[in-house]
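TL;DR need structure tokens for one chain.
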Amino acid sequence: MLHRLFREETVRSVLAWLRRLGIPRSDRLDVAQDILLSAFTSLSRFDPGRAAPERWINRIAVHVAAHYHQRGRHRRELLLEAPDLAVADEHPSPEELLGNEQQHRLVRSWIQALAPEHRALLLEHHIEEIPMAEIARRREIPLSTAYKRHACAVAALADIARKGAPG
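>> reply
TL;DR here they are.
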């Protein structure tokens, strides 16, 4: 059983799942390590009669990714000592304001170009800051499905941004 669970193919699958679950590339190896460690330490609870090993590790991956995203919202950097610097004008210049407004319009046009279900999911999670678990509960779908739909919505938005349409 161990040889089937912990092999190179499993690591590749875990990394692919993490990409689809929206884990940044820079953190994927660390999160994958957490997943494999969790699977190893809970191996005694694995019941091959209930699920295939790949499905079992996938559920662990979704769970760990969900916790990663929850923790990410609460990370804060603390500046221990700030040098005593005089700051000129903290208000943005008219050029910066115009640039920001143009960028906001462009992003809004990309969001409007999304399919309605993708748009709704992104707005709920990122604008209204509704936790993914709550979105899954409201839609009566598994949490893993909600994260997979979120990853698809983000990919669709990125695709629209890459194409530069509309805008």
